[in-house]
Amino acid sequence: MSLLIIFFLFLAGAMVATIFLANSMVRKRDIDQMKSLVSGKAAAGPGKKGDSAPSLIKSETPTPREVFAQYFLGKNLNQKLRDYIEQAGMDWDPARTIYLSLILAVVGFNVFWYMIPRGQPIAIVGVILGGGLPAFILYRKRAARLHAFEEQFPDALEFVARAMRTGHAFTVSLEMLHKEFGPPLSIEFRRTFEEQNLGLPLEVALERLGTRVPLLDVRFFVSAVGLQKRTGGNLAGLLDNLSYLIRERFKLRGKIRAISAHGRISGLVLSMIPITVAILMFYTNPDYVLFFFDDPDGKVLLAAMIILQFLGFVSIKKLTDIGV
Fold it and tell me: Which of 90, 233, 237, 254 is most buried when burial is the number of CB atoms within 10 A of its CB?
């Protein structure tokens, strides 16, 4: 009899310990999810690769790096650079971008000055190329990320419309986008859902989405949802129409790019010819080219050529870049 009592006491103790351990594990999981949520690490979702979203909670105390960036760039330019980096989806900050630009500018100067034969007169080119490399990387990353988002956006609108027709709320449909789509669209909509889930009004969260993703289609989406919230109507049908409109814009844009391809290639060739000829002349007849660096009149002519070449490139690009 005593063995039976001991067995039941042991069984009860094991059950209590199991319940306590399970409760502790659940609480730890919830705490870890909340930490990853506010830090932006969970934005890409489980098993998905891609850039992570910034933290939803911003520290009020500026770090020394932020103070340096604000002093170097100014408050407004520093904020614009921060927004640009966020739109590129890169784990940088303005201070790091400045550091990289300065270091690469010094490296470019030394490469042209010491490692390229007769490269001293054009060492400034190395400074420009090295210092502008981080900005070029940000530009390419931002353009690629926005292009990827734009390609996913029509399918996402149709998915939200279908989810709403099956009875899901609009905010729940936004959360489902995070599970059904990959970065960068899943990251941005997950962040929008979490912002409104943490107390931010839906209209404000959508406006912040439009700021993070500065695309015309996203502005249409934000305006359409805001108008529907104020006046009512069939939001699912509105999203279907918007998705159809975006796809038609894609088709028209493709036709325009095909028609303007000849002009764009001609502009690129015309822009590269003077640079190529200058490089060849610098190595075949350097005394002829050094005139533009040593003589005062040559420096004026060189500056005028660079300005006119730049204006010609911009003019050709504007003529062949037809917005839709």
Answer: 90
Q: Quote the tokens at residue 94.
A: 């303005």
Short-list 222, 317, 193, 208, CA closest to 263? 317
- DSSP, collapsed to helix, strand or coil, labels residue 215 as coil
Q: Quick one: 236 and 271 in the same domain?
A: no
What six digits make up the tokens of 167?
A: 């009875």
Q: In the structure encoding, which two tokens stand for residue 324, read together? A: 């839709």
Q: What one-letter code names the amino acid at 201?
A: P
Type of residue at 227: L
Q: pTM above 0.85?
A: no
Distance CA 247, CA 262 (A): 25
String of b and e for 17-33 (b: at least 16 CB within 10 Å)? eeeeeeeeeeeeeeeee
Give 140's DSSP letter: H
User: Is the N-terminal amide bond of 54 cis, ω within 30° of 0?
Assistant: no
- The DSSP output letter for 90 is -
Q: Of 230, 250, 270, which residue sits at a domain end? A: 250
Domain termination site, one of 198, 232, 250: 250
Return d(Cα 62, Cα 66) in angstroms, integer: 6
Residue in the structure block whose two tokens are 């070449």: 309
